[in-house]
Each structure stands twice: as structure tokens, then as C-alpha cells.
């Protein structure tokens, strides 16, 4: 096409489309850069100590928080109850932080009987947020806390989801420390883990910048978990204390087969008691609070059985 002596290489509609795509690409680039900056602060699954202390204080409960430095890594935890009482240690899943067990640390019945400590696992909460590590490394960081807080009273440990294999590792690495342990929807069976070969692509490439908050260390440690669970096989026989296993039969995140795997693996535990919730999913620490509360109140009773509920 000719006009005014010039060859029109592009029609007006073509020029408009080129301009539109350029503007769109620029906008998407800007949004991508902005997201990379704000992603770390999104979905952190943690609350500030000052905020939580004020919340507990409104209920007449003193919440204490603390930090412990272990080989250059920082471990953060929260504590309620008298130091003269036996201790319940709580270990959250992935992602998460200590306040996953807020309702337990503030429960009046439990406070009459226990001092309660909830831990930010390494990489989460305020324990070097974002720096994921495997179960062995996490145990190395967490274990010194039990010596620091030891008061010559019985100690018990409770773990949910990935906190399940974590407390098996902690019990194996700290023989004689725990008088009983409670596994809530724990993921211990390596055969039940999906292959998920895409996970390393996320945390070993720049794509990691796109993952928000606590999902970054969660994605990484879930990849480590596949090997961790194979290695954990040698730790199950080291557990000697009574073990209580609770699992929802409709759990879509951690298959219920994990419960039976754990039972068969705990060959030297003095007792293994399993309870299945027929209509529950993965979130039993909150949906079955009353059941779990009663179990915790009876951990010092060797004759207590969950099936009697």
C-alpha cells in the first residue's frame, strides 16, 4: 500500500497490537519484580511475640518467648505455665509456627498440670525464617532446648504432620528425655510419599523467588523429607517410651497408612496406642481438641487407652 509517496509497512491495527503487547509485557515485568519483593512477607504463618503476649495476657495467662543460639542457628519458642510442672513440648507441621498450638498453651485444664512449650521449627516462625534444613539438622538445633528447660519433671512431646517424624527423630536423639509421645496425623512412611520431582526446580532455581513466605522452606524440607524418612527407619527402634498415634481416616494430605507404618516400626516402644477418627481429615489438632486434651491430661497414666473414649 502506498500513501503520500511512502510504503506503509504496518497497518494501524498492527501498530496498535505491537504497542499493546509492549505495554502488557512491561506491566507484567513490573508486577513480577514487585511480587519478588513482597512474596517473602506473604503467608509467613507467624505472629509477632508482642501481639501474642498481649492476646494471652487478655485471658490472664503469661506467655513467655525465648531464643536459643545453636551452632549459628536461632531457635525460637513460646512457653506458658509454671516451671515446677511437667512439660509438654509441641512441634508443628509444614508450613507453620508455634502458634499452631495456641489453644493448647492457653487451655486452663492443661495449665493446671503442665508447663507447655511450643517450638518454631528451624526455618519457620522466628527460627531463622526461610532457612530450611533436614530432620537431622533440625534435631541438632532443637535438642539442646530440652537440656536448657529441663526441670527434673517428666516431659512429653507432641508432633503434628511433619512434626510426627520430627518428634520420632528427637526422641531417638534424646533417649530417656520423654515419658511419652503423641503423633498427630504424622507423615512417617517413605512409601506413602509422592515422587514430586518438580520440588527441586522451585527451590534450586530463580523460581524460588516467586514462592510466598513460609511456603519456600516448606517446599524445600518436603523434598528433604523423602530421604529423611528412609533414614528415619533406624531411629524408630530407639524409641522406648509409650507412643500414642492419632489419624483421620479421611486425611488427604498424609495418608492414613502412615499410622500403621509407625506402629510396626516402633518395635521397642513400651506401648503403641492408635486411634482413628472415621470422619476427620488432616487437621485433628483443632477439630479434635477435646479428645486430644483428655489424652494429654492422662499421659502419666500407664493404663489409659484412647479406645476407651
Question: Which features would summarize this protein structure in a list?
Answer:
309 residues; alpha/beta; Rossmann fold; 2 domains; eight-stranded mixed beta sheet; two-stranded antiparallel ribbon; 12 helices; 10 strands; 18% strand; globular; disordered N terminus
Task: Walk me through this protein's architecture.
By secondary structure, the chain is α/β, with parallel strands linked by helices. The chain has two domains: about 30 residues; about 260 residues, Alpha/Beta hydrolase fold, catalytic domain (Rossmann fold, 3-Layer(aba) Sandwich), CATH 3.40.50.1820. It has twelve helices and ten strands. It has an eight-stranded mixed sheet. A two-stranded antiparallel ribbon has the order 1-2. Helix 5 crosses helix 7. The longest helix is centred in the N-terminal third of the chain and has 27 residues.
Overall geometry comes to globular
Spatial order of the strands forming the largest sheet: 3-4-6-5-7-8-9-10
CATH architecture of the largest domain: 3-Layer(aba) Sandwich
In percent terms, what proportion of residues is strand? 15-25%
Q: Count the helices. How many?
A: 12
**Ends: how far apart?**
87 Å
Radius of gyration: 25 Å
Biggest β-sheet description: 8 strands, mixed
Overall number of structural domains: 2
Q: Indicate the percent of residues in helices.
A: 25-40%
* Unreliable segments of 5+ consecutive residues: 1-7, 31-39
Amino acid at each position: 500500500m502506498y500513501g503520500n509517496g511512502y510504503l506503509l509497512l504496518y497497518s494501524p491495527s498492527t501498530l496498535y497490537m505491537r504497542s499493546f503487547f509492549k505495554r502488557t509485557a512491561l506491566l507484567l515485568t513490573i508486577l513480577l519484580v514487585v511480587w519478588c519483593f513482597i512474596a517473602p512477607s506473604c503467608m509467613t504463618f507467624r505472629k509477632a511475640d508482642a501481639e501474642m503476649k498481649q492476646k494471652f495476657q487478655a485471658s490472664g495467662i503469661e506467655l513467655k518467648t525465648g531464643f536459643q543460639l545453636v551452632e549459628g542457628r536461632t531457635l525460637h519458642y513460646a512457653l506458658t505455665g509454671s516451671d515446677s510442672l511437667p512439660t509438654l513440648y509441641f512441634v508443628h507441621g509444614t508450613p507453620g509456627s508455634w502458634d499452631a498450638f495456641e489453644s493448647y498453651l492457653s487451655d486452663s485444664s492443661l495449665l493446671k498440670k503442665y508447663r507447655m512449650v511450643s517450638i518454631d521449627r528451624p526455618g519457620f516462625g522466628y527460627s531463622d525464617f526461610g532457612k530450611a534444613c533436614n530432620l537431622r539438622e533440625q534435631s541438632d538445633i532443637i535438642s539442646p532446648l530440652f537440656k536448657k528447660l529441663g526441670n527434673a519433671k517428666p516431659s512429653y512431646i507432641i508432633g503434628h504432620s511433619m512434626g510426627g517424624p520430627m518428634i520420632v527423630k528427637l526422641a531417638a536423639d534424646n533417649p530417656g528425655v520423654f515419658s511419652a509421645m503423641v503423633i498427630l496425623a504424622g507423615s512417617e512412611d517413605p512409601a506413602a510419599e509422592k515422587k514430586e520431582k518438580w520440588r527441586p526446580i522451585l527451590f534450586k532455581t530463580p523460581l524460588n523467588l516467586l514462592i510466598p513466605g513460609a511456603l519456600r522452606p516448606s517446599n524445600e524440607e518436603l523434598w528433604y523429607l523423602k530421604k529423611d524418612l528412609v533414614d528415619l527407619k533406624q531411629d524408630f527402634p530407639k524409641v522406648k517410651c509409650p507412643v500414642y498415634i492419632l489419624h483421620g481416616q479421611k486425611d488427604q494430605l498424609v495418608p492414613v497408612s502412615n499410622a500403621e507404618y509407625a506402629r510396626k516400626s516402633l518395635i521397642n516402644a513400651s506401648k503403641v496406642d492408635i486411634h482413628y477418627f472415621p470422619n476427620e481429615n488432616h487437621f485433628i489438632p483443632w477439630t479434635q481438641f477435646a479428645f486430644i486434651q483428655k489424652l494429654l491430661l492422662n499421659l502419666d497414666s500407664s493404663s489409659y487407652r484412647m479406645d476407651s473414649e
